[in-house]
Amino acid sequence: MSKPRNAEKLSNGSKTEPSVWVRAITANSEWPDKEEFLDVIYWSRQVIGIIVGIAWGLLPLKGFLGLLLFVLVNAGSLYVYFSSFQQVDEEEFGGAWELTKEGFMTSFAGFLVTWIIIYSGLHFD
């Protein structure tokens, strides 16, 4: 007998939910606790901010173009994640705008700090 794909069966017959990590990387996961999905969006955005900050510092991108590209990459990638990959009903979370802006300013701050440090360290004497 095979195990159910999205839940592990315990010896007493009850089911447990897969971990947040497993649901985050599995397409069309169910999110009974809405806060967990918002946490995934928040922390994904933080990771994207740091990675893009490192990339922009290495490239060396600067100015308004770097800021604009960050906004497009950050918001765009998370929008694709929750609308296409997870296919959640945005209205359950307050609409697409609420999900798009979840954790954005914190991510922007992390991006700026990382971008400035990498760029300054590599491209200034």
UniProtKB/TrEMBL annotation:
Taxonomy, superkingdom: Eukaryota
Keyword Acetylation listed: no
Record-level GO cellular component terms: endoplasmic reticulum membrane; mitochondrion
Subcellular location: Endoplasmic reticulum membrane
Pfam family, one: EMC6
Topology in membrane: Multi-pass membrane protein
Segments traversing the membrane: 103-122
Family statement drawn from the similarity comment of this UniProt entry: Belongs to the EMC6 family.
UniProt name for this protein: Rab5-interacting protein
Species whose genome carries this gene: Trichomalopsis sarcophagae
